[in-house]
Amino acid sequence: xxxxxxxxxxRTGALNAAGFVTAFGAHSIAxxxxxxxxxxxxxxxxxxxxxxxxxxxEVILKPLFGVLSDRIGVKPVIIGGLLAFxxxxxLGVFASTPLLLALVRFGQGGAAAAFSPAASAGVxxxxxxxxxxxxxxxxxxWKGLGYALGPLIGAGLIWxxxxxxxxxxxxxxxxxxxxxxxxxIPALPxxxxxxxxxxxxxxxxxxxxxxxxxxxxxxxxGTLGTAVGFLPLMGAQLELPTVASVGVVTVLAVSSALVQLxxxxxxxxxxxxxxxxxxxxxxxxxxxxxAVAIEPSIVSLYASSLALxxxxxxxxxxxxxxxxxxxxxxxxxxxxxxxxxxRELGDAGGPLIVGAIATAVSLALxxWVLAAxxxxxxxxxxxxxxxx
Length: 388
Fold this sequence. Notes:
Blueprint: H1 13-35, H2 44-72, H3 74-93, H4 98-127, H5 132-184, H6 198-206, H7 208-237, H8 242-268, H9 274-294, H10 298-326, H11 332-360, H12 363-384
Helix pairs in contact: 1-2, 1-4, 1-5, 2-3, 2-4, 2-11, 3-4, 3-5, 4-5, 4-10, 4-11, 5-8, 5-10, 7-8, 7-9, 7-10, 7-11, 7-12, 8-10, 9-10, 9-12, 11-12
């Protein structure tokens, strides 16, 4: 795979911003729906459906838009998706019923399904295989901040101006990012198409160089979704001040963002392989989950959030870098779209598994089960993954 740039280092800040917008949009709205449940007349079942519809749209549409970006280029798909996201957010200002919110939510998810994998493919092609870790470290850190800080920012905007303030912020941020992409990102050429048979496609998707990193990304994102939802809850159960309960999310977000910047460079330098990096990240996640499951306290909560952030960031940076380095440019969009779909399944599955077990037995057991699943991913990486 050749690098789609000149000798001047590429500037991917606009793509990093696109990654932040999709993550911020997903989790800030989710937090807002939970806060405003009673004021807009929603039952808990309706709330659950509204929270899921965004992820459903992404799971269905991300692979399709990934393929489209391979066919027409990543830049128009990114810009079109951001503008569509902005437009749906404007409609959200006037959504006053659960049905209208569901339509807006699905539209936002569909728009994010367009520009999120295309942005990942753009980062991969602009960085090239030798610098994929460094650039995906930056991209992943901004996206991780969106996932983790979205609920905090969203809650603040809703407190200040209700749902309209949040939707206006989302609309403006997406529109400005679209302008930034249009002005700063080069029009990467569409590469020559290669015909693949159905058997070829199956082999590519079943290859360990694809499946293992995607499993790692799903495990990391599932842990992130679980931590953002359940660690503050555990803090509240311990009767900690609100600031202290929410602060665990901030620690997780900052540690994840910082470690991605570092581990991406280390990976490019060959000082850590994706194989061992995913295993180390999984081990850190297991330690964080087990620590807080055994003895919930303010010390274990903050220690857990730090370990989880480091583990999530390590897996995310190395996983995406591995995919970028082992995928031919002409099908980069499809690979990133399918990988993003795997992340979305993890994002939905992690909290669902922990929540179901917590309801039936206990939250501690739910965290133990998630830790076991993540440990399996780490062991599989050590056993099956090749170096990029």
